Amino acid sequence: MSSHVHKRGLNLQSAKTKILPASEALARFEGVKAIVQGVKKELLEDIRKETEDESPYPDAEPVDLPLRTKRELPSEALERTFKEYFAASNPTRFDKTLFHYLLNRLGEAKSRVAVSYCLDALQERAEETQAILKYFSVISPTEEDVRSVVGYMMSPTAVYDYQCYQLLKWLSEEQIKNEDVLKYCRRIVHDFARDLWLRSWAIAYLGDTATNLI
Q1: What is the CB neighbour count within 10 angstroms for residue 46?
Q2: What are the backbone dihedrals phi and psi of residue 93, each rounded to the nearest 5 degrees, phi first?
Q3: Region at 92 (left for phi over 0; alpha for psi -120 to 50; beta for the rest)
Q4: Given Cys at both, which of 22, 89, 104, 167 links 153, Cβ 3.0 to 4.6 Å?
C-alpha cells in the first residue's frame, strides 16, 4: 500500500492508518452514520413542531441549516446523544467523527453539556484540544472553565508543548488575562528547553498584557 501511495506524492501516517476487513470498516462508518441520522431525525421533528404554527407546510430542508440560523432551537436530542456515547460510564470506543459532529452542533446550540467531558479530555485526549477550544469559544467559557484550562496547562500532566501552545494561543486570542498565566509565561520565555512556538506565544501574551495595562 505504501508504495502505491508514495507514487502519488503522498505519505501514510502509521498512527492514523489501520487496515480492517471490509465488514468491520463498513460497520464503523455505518455506525456513526446511523447515530448522526438518528439525531438529525429528532432535531428535524423538533424544528417541525416549533414552526408548525408559523406555516401549514413545514420545511423539510436538512437540519444543519436551521441549526446554524436559529440559535434557540432545542438541543435535547444532541445532549441526550452526547451523554449516551461520551459518558464516563460508557465503555464504547471513542469515535472522533461523532465527537466532532456533536461538539460542533452543541456549540451552535449554546449547550454546555459537554464542558465537563471536554475539560477531562484535555488530559485524556490531547489530540482533540483544537476541537475542544473551538467549542469553548463558541459557548463563551465561564471563569471556572478558564481556571480549569489554566490549571491543567500549568500542571505536570500537561506534558505536550504543542498542546500547551494551543492552550496559550487560545487564551491570548480570547483576550483572557490571568495572573497565573502571566507567571507561567514569565517562566516559559526563559526555558530554552521548551518548543519555540510555545515560547513565542508566551512572549506575545506578556506583550499584550503589558500593552493593556499601559
Answers
A1: 17
A2: -60, 135
A3: beta
A4: 167
Nearest to 206 by CA among 47, 183, 154: 183
CB burial class (10 A; 0-12, 13-18, 19+) of residue 170? buried
User: What are the residue ranges spanned by the domains of the chain?
Assistant: 28-113, 142-214
> What are the residues whose beta carbons fall under 8 Å from the beta carbon of 17, sequence distance 6 or more?
none
* DSSP string for the chain: -HHHHHHTT----GGG-----HHHHHHHHHHHHHHHHHHHHHHHHHHHHHHTTT-SS-----THHHHHH-TTS--HHHHHHHHHHS-TT--SPP-HHHHHHHHHHHHHTT--TTHHHHHHHHHH-GGGHHHHHHHHHHH---HHHHHHHHHHHTSTT---HHHHHHHHHHHHHTT---HHHHHHHHHHTT-TTS-HHHHHHHHHHHHHHHHHH-
Write down the pLDDT at residue 62: 44
pLDDT at position 137: 96
Asked if residues 95 and 32 have their Cβ atoms less than 8 Å apart, the reply is yes
- Please choose, from the candidates 120, 119, 125, 202, the residue with its C-alpha nearest in 3D space to the C-alpha of residue 165: 202
Low-confidence ranges of the chain (pLDDT < 50): 5, 7-8, 47, 50-63, 65-73, 213-214
According to the model, what pLDDT value does residue 91 have?
64
